[in-house]
Amino acid sequence: MEAAAAARGAADLYPVDILEDDPEGHREAALAYYASLRAGVRPSAEVFSLPTGEQVKLEASSVCFCTVHRDEPQQKILVLVNPQDTKTVVAVYIKESWWTTEDVLRTSDPAREGLMKVQSFGERIVLFILNVVIFGRLERNLDDDAMFFLPHSVKEQAKILWRDGAAVGFYTTKMKGSLCGSGTGACYLLPVFDTVFVRRRCRRQGLGMAMLRDFCEAFRDEEALGLSCPVSPAMYQVCRKFLLAWPEERGRLWEVEPPGAWGQRGNIWLKVQLQRSSLPDWSKRKNTTDWQGTCRRLRWRNNNLLRLRTSGLGVNERACGLCAAGWDPV
Ligand SMILES: CC(C)(COP(=O)(O)OP(=O)(O)OC[C@H]1O[C@@H](n2cnc3c(N)ncnc32)[C@H](O)[C@@H]1OP(=O)(O)O)[C@@H](O)C(=O)NCCC(=O)NCCS
Hints:
This protein is of the alpha+beta class. It has helices at 15-18, 23-39, 101-104, 121-138, 207-218, 233-245, 268-278, 289-303, 305-310; strands at 47-49, 55-57, 63-69, 72-82, 85-94, 97-100, 114-117, 147-149, 157-163, 166-174, 192-198, 225-228, 253-256, 265-267, 318-320.
């Protein structure tokens, strides 16, 4: 039996358009389906067809649960992994049907266009897929983008960028006054542009700049705004173009470590100028020693992450290394 899309009913409706805001109900349905797979009570020939034509057998060994948020273990989705590469998610089980990751990112609602605040559970799944599956596994160049973002917090302030019926990017914000992490009393001293991603096929079309602009506009009355440290080489270039176009923002944008006290801030425009004078051909450099140094520093930070967590200090969402999120065995 062909399982994909069988139960969808109305044409061209995608998960984000039809999923109720009921994470608990969703989890229970996924658990029940998983139990039926394990018990072997489903038709033995059930398969899911990938867009490549390849067929993946639907069996307990090819699915697993992922936690959508790093701080809410109960909110899980059931995913199907590629048998040839078990860290790559190919489909998600939603509303009694399997959907390709690309379909999870689609919408048939014409009102979903531009930057829209993440509010519903369905939108949180879209954010997770964009962040962990698309950026974390598929569209990250290990040579020059050694950065990935941890799964977001359930309380994360996020906006998804919708374009022509699909989610193509996102950015998240740490609000001034919000806690820097669980188990810490430290709060952000300024609003911080924390994680940002644009799908590869949509890059160099001004979308990164549009998101930075949206962030700056949202906090018109703030004297200082942060970007979480470390800022990637591409993002520095975005900042440069942005600050050339809007010179009035040059004094407001700071690269910050949480919580963003004065000693934890570096002015971005100044950094851009310094980089340009010390790295004459910055845009063509890959694996620059500066960036590798930054990643090493961050790796040091990640190695100390557990210690930081237990000692009550917070960290932002950035990380370096090979994999952001582990798929949980059930
Ligand atoms: C960083 C990122 C969000 C930029 O998104 P984007 O939509 O491509 O950015 P824009 O199109 O708005 O770029 C604006 C300008 O920045 C510069 N720029 C952007 N990416 C660049 C790159 N890789 N190399 C050199 N310059 C770049 C260019 O001057 C560009 O203008 P141009 O295309 O007219 O020359 C995107 O590359 C991305 O998602 N990267 C992976 C995740 C990441 O690094 N996030 C940032 C964490 S700090």
